[in-house]
Amino acid sequence: MSIRKQTNFILLVSIVILSYACSSTKRILVEFPQTPENEISQDIQSLLIVNRAVDNTYTDLSTDSLQLLFYKKDFRLDTVINDLTAADTTIKVLGELLFESGRFDYVIPENRFLRATRNAFFANAMEWQEVRQLCNLYQTDAIVAVDMFETHVATDLEDGSVFDPMQGIFISAVGAQMAIVYDALFRIYDPKHEQIVVREVFKDTLFWEDKALDVRELFAEFTPVKQALTEAGISLALDFSEKISTSWESENRVIFSKGSSKLKEIALLTDNSDWTPAIEAWQNIVNGSGSKSEKSKALFNLAVACEIQGNIDCAIDYALESYNMAYHPLTYQYLELLETKKKEQKN
């Protein structure tokens, strides 16, 4: 089964499960971790984030000063602009994204722009002695370095027309376009093993365009070049974060919340994602209840708890035990979903 078909199958089964969710069940929204493309060893928990791309070609012009450079060329310019604010924004936003993922801690030092020898394109790899010294100084496990960051800005201004629905005709207008191409190289240096564990190159383009009846009205709303460069830095941070940090995907699940007073009480614990006491209470039902139906529902709920904790095998075991103890269509459908997710993980 292809990945697309598997994904569609999971979606279909989810819909069937949710359609079954009636008064005896409770729907919950849960988030499942998604393994990143470049999964880094758990030995690396804390990161020092620095920039080794900034050199004397970088400037930090104000919004107005930078905009004036383009206005003097009638907003028709195609040039490389290395902006210090954009470079700094990249590493600051990257730190926040990595921390929010729940996978990494980070340090951004005050002196975060490091001098580096470079070739024609990017900074040469760091010496391991320097890597060890910095990691010892800031008590981190590894270094994330931006070893290349370049932004190319192209703008254009042209006459055009817009349709006036009131008059039913096209009228004269002016339009602006702006494209920012960013190129970057990230490396992650592991001093313990003296290894570059991640090397990622990025190249992408952000594009803005708008029209108005005159130039003044147009540029009153059009994104300034300085802001666009900053947004490019944010976009780059998002690109790299997605490569190495855990992402989260929201999905709907159901648990049995009725059938006995105990099941109803325990279901309330999940309102605040308080799964530990809920799991203990469901296990008590499994070990002590004289009702097969109640036990089966508690086993089903334990299967959902296992899935949420990332243990698919445990979830399948509980779901099978629930299915064998007392038949519920919901349990069969959930087993199909779990088996499909397990196959996806293997692929």
State the main characteristics.
347 residues, alpha/beta, 2 domains, Double Stranded RNA Binding Domain
User: Which descriptor suits the 3D outline?
Assistant: flat
The helix/strand series, from N terminus to C terminus, equals HEEHEHEHEEEHHEHHHHH
**Major sheet description:** 6 strands, mixed
Please work out how many helical segments DSSP would assign. 11
Helices and strands: which structural class? alpha/beta
CATH architectural label of the largest domain:
2-Layer Sandwich
In the CATH scheme, the class of the largest domain would be: Alpha Beta
Number of discrete domains = 2
Determine the N-to-C terminus distance.
10 Å
Approximately how much helix is present in the residues? 40-55%
Low-confidence stretches: 1-13, 15-22
Percent of residues in beta strands: 25-35%
Rg over alpha carbons: 28 Å
For this structure, the CATH topology of the largest domain is Double Stranded RNA Binding Domain
Number of beta strands:
8
Mean pLDDT: 89
Characterization of the model:
The chain has 347 residues and is α/β, with parallel strands linked by helices. The chain has two domains: 3-35 and 255-346, Serine Threonine Protein Phosphatase 5, Tetratricopeptide repeat, CATH 1.25.40; 46-245, Double Stranded RNA Binding Domain (2-Layer Sandwich), CATH 3.30.160. It is 44% helix and 28% strand. The chain is built from eleven helices and eight strands. The strands form two sheets. Strands 2, 3, 4, 5, 6 and 7 form a six-stranded mixed sheet that branches. A two-stranded antiparallel sheet has the order 1-8. A hairpin with a 4-residue loop joins strand 6 (169-190) and strand 7 (195-212). Helix 3 packs parallel to helix 6 (225-244), helix 7 (261-269) runs antiparallel to helix 8 (275-288) and helix 8 packs antiparallel against helix 9.
